[in-house]
## 1
Amino acid sequence: MVLLQFLGKLLAGVLVMVAVGGWLFVDREHAAAAFDQPWRRLREVTPHILVLLGVLALNRVFRNLGQELSWMLGWNVTGLIYAIEGEFVALVQVVATPALTVFFSFVYLYGYVFLATFPVVAYWLLADTDPMQRTLVAYALNYAIGLVCYTLFIAFGPRNLLPNTVQELLYATYPQSQILTSTVNTNTNAFPSLHTSVSVTVALLARRTRDVYPGWFKLSTVLAGLVVVSTMYLGIHWATDVVAGAVLAVVSVRLADRYHDLSWVWQAFPERTRVRTAEGRND
Amino acid sequence: MMADERQSERPAVTEPIGRRRALGLLGSGALGLLGGCFGAKDLFERSDPGEQLSVAIKSPPADADTRALRIARFLATNLTAVGINATVVPTRRETLMRDVLVNQQFDVYVAPFPECDDPDFLRPLFHSRYTDTAGWYNPFGFEDGDVDSLLELQRRQDGGQRRRTLGTIQEKLARAQPLSVLAFVDELRALSSTVGVGYGADGIHSKLGYLTLSSATLDTVPDPTAGQTNGTAETRTAAPSETRSPADGIRMTLTDNRALKNLNPLSAAARDDGVVTSLLYDSLGQRIDGRVRPWLADSWTWSDESPVEVSLDLSIREGATWHDGTDVDATDVAFTYRFLSDTSMGAFDSPVPAPRFSGRASLLDAVETLDSNTVRLTFDSVSRPVARQALTVPILPAHVWESKTGKALVGSIDTEETLTEAVVWANRNPVGSGPLRFRRLQPQERLVLEPFADHFLTDVTAPHLKPFADGVDYDALTFRRAPSSEAAISLVQNGDAEGTGLGVAPSSIPTIGRDSSLDLSVTPTRTFYHVGYNTRRPPFDDPAFRRLVARLLDKAYFAEEVFEGYGKPAASPLARHDSLASQLAWDGRDPVAPFFGEDGRLDTDRAREAFRNAGYRYTAEGELVVS
């Protein structure tokens, strides 16, 4: 019950945010295009949607098994991370106030889900399916590589190693949120921070479409920055996790590009439109 | 009549048994077996001569056990202060228990020791015969001939004699410090005011506690006297009566999900207190108000021979049945005792004792079935009070466990050792004879038990069973996962659970206090937190070194700050037993290993000086080096 209530609130909140975002960043011209050739676009993105769903399904199936494997084969890097960065996260928390905790909890939960969903909606409205395809592939790569890392590395977040130094701001303020997060993930999966990697991925991709959605580029960049800070402020991630998450984002976007430029992808989907990136359009 | 030849020829545990064989203690079952193959990982952690000493301290993470983790951090900080490179390695419970109790892969660990009633638990815990047995059987690798003979002596004695022997054992253990006892816990729980606690002696999270639990909200007729309580319940966001699903009955949270993956009563890595499985499996005798009383056996008689060479005839309760409808008979009892001592039933070259209860089963010399309902247990050199301990092991259905005596297939991955299926089995559809039976398991999420209609408690007259007569008061008992103690309390607050089964962190007390619909229950327990040392690994093989490490631990500070007053500092594992050695009683300061400092702050110079005096060398940079 707690879980359903919490999930309901989260979904409703994110829906409102997506609606407001759409109203702010999508002009009428694009909105009208939503109904233009929907089948062609759906055909073009279907394989990419399937790839993402496949990875998510694999994640779901593999999570418990992966957890067992991880405890057998994985390297427990929690102590190493602490040796590298010490009590940096506690330093971030020096600025903590109740109002700031509410703000960052909101950013971590609602802001993040909004950040991850809005591009899917916004890019769907573009006649060119290329940004959508890249987004889906980059998401899939984030999860897939993240899953491999989670199996190889056991890393508890700072709140689990330094309970009296690092405050557990999110879960102490909203214990219900832990019931949600523990349903979708385990507390050993801190390295890398998937919150960071997905947020940075979105911001990187938004940069490429900044001539179409300039407002979204600015907002996503700021919001991604806030999500990154929130993961540390709330005591959930180490700075090391955040750095690794950012690297994962860059790698995922690069690989998504590579995937796009592969010739066999061209042959497999000959009806695909020409690849056009934001840079390409600028010519 | 079946005389148990093999049993009488061979004491239950005669030779050291490879621990890896019992890898199976692993809660998660087969996969976990691979664990033993990767011992090489540990090689990286070892220090080389001339280098700074490195020590890994294993502890559960804060989500699982904040107390243990904070103690581990405290120790790491102070070890670092005396020039030792110490790292805390947060490890989930089942892996920690596997590393410590099965694979011996640890330097130092911090954990609670599960509650034990009779002091005879010291025997398997410290006897050198058990150093290679999996389970809470001498994980320290501690070997001391004097302690061995005293441990064997105390089980033959009773009264003041036994107390004196136990006193000497405690003093020897305090000097040797194979483990540092830190503090005993007063367990804290949040309970919804809609639940009624019956038998309170052992606290709610105990076999007898759960059997006498009642739920006011299950009554459809409103109780006028409960009006006030209901009033407060309705002002909350979610009243329990609206959100509860009647099929779930009483719902308790577990912050430890091992019981939601594995229901094998013999698994040491999956069980701490074993409360959940104790509801499913009955024993011949049950400890009620401190005494072992007839339970699955309806009576027993001691033979009138010498006080230590005793035998005991027990008759099993008429009409006792297993949850699958089969009769419980004397064969099951005889099978159980043999099986606990050797789960291969003699098929393997060396026995594979069960990782839990084999210590108690080892008190027996022989088991015979006299007729289909009567068994005779023969003890060798055991006093009656200790012998009664053997009656508290769970009786297992022979027809289910007989097929688990074979070599576990997964064991072949680890070529070195042989495993029985019995120790690796997750037992996710348990058949016992207990007052509750298995209904449903949603792995890692929830476990639902239901009353067993054919249980003897539904119709008993014996006075000592009166409080438990007429069966339980609810349709189902659900255990559900909670990721942390805060989350557990929020589940109770929101009407998604009636109470926290496992204890909550002391830091949650204000939350409980603020909510008028929650009751705080405080149960003093015999569970003690301790630091365990692997005496096989230098420098922990040196008692002087262990004593010095013990002096880096401020027990009074732990009780005050980490336990927030809900615990008592202690210097002996028997601190909450009658047989506590008087010299080891806590008297404002540690009688054995007083802290090098005050109020949690280490006097670094003094501590370093002590290490130097004990023969440990320091580099110019102040690092303690391995010789």
## 2
Amino acid sequence: MSETRTRILVVDDEVAIRRFLRTGLGVHGFAVSEAESGATALQQATIVLPDLIVLDLQLGDMDGLDVLARLREWSSVPVFILSVRARETEKVRAFELGADDYIVKPFGMAEFVARVKSALRRRQNLQEAEPMVTLGDLSVDLAHRIVTMRGQMVKLSPMEYKLLSHLARHSGKVLTHDQLLRHGWGAEHVGDVHYLRIFMRKLRRKIEPDPTRPRYIATELGVGYRLLNAEQELTLVTAED
Amino acid sequence: MFMQVVDFLYGSNWSTSVRDKPWLNARAILWCTCLIGASGLIAHGLDVWLNLKHVSVIFLPAVVICAVVWGMLASILAVLLTLAATSFFFYEPVPNFRVDDPREFLDLVIFTLVGIAMSQMAAFARQQAMAARRRADDMARLQSLSRKLADAAEPQAIANAIVEQARGKASANLYEPQAGLLALVASEGPERPAMVEAQRHWAGFLQTKDGRKQSQGDGWSFHLLHIGQPLNQGGEALGMLALQDDAEAQPAFLAALLDQAASALHRGHLAAAMEDSRVERRTKRLREAVIDAISHDLRTPLAAIMGAASTLESFGTLCGEAERAELLDSIREQCLRLDSNFAKLLDLSQIRAGELLPKSESVELADLVQAALHHGAHMLRAHRLEVALPMTLPLLTVDSLMLQHALDNLLENAAKYSPPGSIVRIGAHQDDGRVILDVSDRGIGINAADMERIFEPFHRAEHPPDGEAIAPRPPGKGLGLAIARAFVEANGGSLQAISEGEGRGATFRIILPVSAIHGSEA
């Protein structure tokens, strides 16, 4: 029975944080393992083979980002970064190193669990190679390269489709400006955020009902963009109403 | 009239510049020759007309003029020229330098003696005039120094006045010990002695306790500035003045100058010390006010959290479902408040430390607004939100996080000072190349008198009514707006408050100038 439960490894040197995450995740049926240092975290990751890792950036023995980099050498397990620092440069570094989400302390448990579930589902979809991403009225058919709004086909330029499909393939996850620029235009355009903004504006005008209040493509200020997935879109809409 | 003629001949103002021109220069030689030549012509005329035989006397005025204007060397030159001219042109045999007539020879000998005597006297008179002039000069410099020193209040201004007046025609440098090391505090003129030299002399003064000036071979001399008794009788060394080419200066003048300079420096130090202690008192008061404010902003939410949590712990079973939910909600709310207050303090410390370096990046205004609305959603839950952003706004080039924080604070402000259920409106438009973003509420409004004061952090603390006790700060007020303004201004924009008065709502307007806009695209 216990083998089938989803296992989450919580890495934080603060007992209080580990305690409430253990409780909060436990009541949602997750099996929780804990590590209080970077070294134990790397060890645990190979032993318990978690389905998701929650990683604090400030650990006693090493920097959380170093732990992430070491992990990424052999594992593609989803990693959630926890941090008290909200600087965008740090978020960008985390995403570039392969983090799946970045959560600034303090945070609410409901949102945290929702994000964990969404990341787990995304991983499952990725493994099943779901060729169709649907979000409200918008659907992106990755197999046939077709984008529709309420069943109507939307005409996108090749570059607009390239950006949208890249976001859709990582639906729910933040892609940094540089990751998008590298994908769309190549490494020499890295840093050219203005370029990206112009294409995003065009893209949003075609797929967003109100481009000044986007509900499909969310901006992470100073970091990048994210195509919301179904439940993220739902929470955003209810939060505003 | 006489002085004008002298100035004209000398080529510049004789009395003031007589000190520094060499006594015999090209101009002097030329003029001497001309004067003697002119005298020769007059002598020739008189010779022809009156058959005047002993013409040398005609040349005497020219010799005297040369002596007065250019000094002794010039007058000797004039005497020699006269001897040459008379023996060649006037005394037989002509034209020849020989003089055969003993009477004429005697005439020339007497002329030479008289000429040399006169040039001696003229040169002496000249020196007297120069000395008088110098005394007057020194007096004027001392007076001017006193005036300048009286005007100067700060130590730096005093130091500048000292070197300016002490330099004379050359360079002057003033040194003072600062934190145990000698430092150059003021400098006038093109040159400076090497710092190691200055340090050596300073150490010499302190070691020997001898206040007399120390000279160097290269024209620099070092003078100790001290207050009270001489150093060896308990006087205090204040600093050191290095003067270039002060050999001509009167010792009395120098002594007076050093004396004045020292007492002015002393006065400056006393004034600065008083100002320091005043600033320190004010800083201490401000620090206390800031600590009070921080304690308030951090402890109040903590108290609420503690209260709610301990109520749940001790009496949770006695509470109904609704009460429990309320207490839990209050814990969550107060945590957010604590977090937001903490973020503000971090922002403020960043601003205070002067570390605001905007990381400018192309950004959609709509994205900024969305981020701020997302962040402030819990505060604005009770309000009706209207967002009207035109699609045609150009992209901005700003530090998006700073601007989002500014906007966060404006939204929090609007939520805090307007009643639940009222409208909070966010609007934007483009005007004359500027992008204008308004956050309007229908809340308590702002007094005309407070329109600027609300942007000052801890403003009551910064301007206490004449150093008296500080009125307590209204909870949470001021800090957010101060941060908002600092962040907007760091991005080249401006933030202003608009209100028709108390009870009539307020609009906070962010204006981002053309320079922050990247140009508009379709």
## 3
Amino acid sequence: MVNKKVVKRKKFISKKKLKKKASKKTIGKIHGFSIQFLPYSEIKNLESEARIKKILDIVSENNILILQGKLKPEEEQKLISDTMTMIRHVNGFSGIELATISHQSEVNLWVKLRNSIARFISGSDFGAVTIIGPATIVKEIKKDPSKIELLLNR
Amino acid sequence: MVKVFNFFKKVFNNLFGNNREIKLGFYGPPNAGKTSLANRICKDFTGEEIGSVSKIPHETRNVQFKEKVEIEYKGKKMTFKMVDTPGIATKIDYEEFLKYKVKKKEAKIRAKEATQGIIESIKWLDDMDMVVIVLDATENPYNQVNITIIGNLVARKIPVLIVANKIDLKKADLKKVEAAFPEYEVVGISAKYGKNLEEFYEAIFSLSKKV
């Protein structure tokens, strides 16, 4: 009889431990988002306005967007302006988190020149990656010169 | 042709430059100390402040300016139109304001005004002759908003000075700000305590030659 009680208690503890282990492995209560990769070819022929619209359409549907290349400074500026307009008009939308990372090691003059020519021909920096996520999901994008860290909301 | 135009522009500026009012914009992320710095300059040279300061982000929600601010430094005088702008951000959530004990209704109004302020800030970029980017030296300088603002100023050929504010705080890392923007002059200051403003004025006068 005593033995049975001991066994039951052991089972109970092991379930608790399992729950603890499981909660460490999961990332909390994040639900309803996906990650989309957008190659530059998808937006290459679009006007700036249409590019921004496409990006905001994707992000407002709870997607984290990974864009090949980067936007022009004036496009980034327009993206911020349009995001603000959207916050005013779309319920539950509180903005975006945005970060771009590109190669920093253009020390060599030849590499600099080669990348400039490539950028001029293609219209974008293919060595760059832009991450844009809805602020409701992405709490913060921590950026250092060489890496991007995504912190998600729980 | 461009060289000839620039030559005449320089001659004109040298002849009449001292009488011209230079539009000096204060840009940067929220709570970096743009209004604190603009206030300090305005108070030093006009006796009046430009706007109110608060710990709550997005305290400045309208572009505010002060005209004919004559700054005198080492015997030289220059007249500026000081333009203090709302902090630029990519997100605004009214719930953020609740943390500062702002009531829900007021927080929602504040958030709405802040979005409009950012749009206004961006629109004013085109009108600036010179821009001071005010960054919080205790925060990560690699924020995309900072890079976007600088990128747009460079594209418009508007001279830029980067100010790393709050250097009086222990967490401040001036070297990190300098490393993030190696192509620009970075001046570390404390707008709150008026620390290192001499170097700031020196940089402003030197930058004004590029206008």
